[in-house]
Amino acid sequence: MASVLVGQFHARDAEGRIYPVHEFRESQPDEADGKEPVSTYRLAIGDRVTHLGGDEFELLQSGIKLTRVV
Length: 70
Hints:
Blueprint: E1 3-12, E2 18-26, E3 39-43, E4 48-53, E5 56-59, E6 65-68
């Protein structure tokens, strides 16, 4: 199943560095199961990002915490 880019935003770490984050969703959600499409997040350079809830994220490889810049 392919993913489609649905959004972009910037997030900041505790040291003030800014990271461009891309949000992807499954292109064809499994409607038979009644499940919502799954969102995944990646930095523009490809590093995976975990959504912790709200505006909080974490870089999967390094564990750096990020906050969405509003």
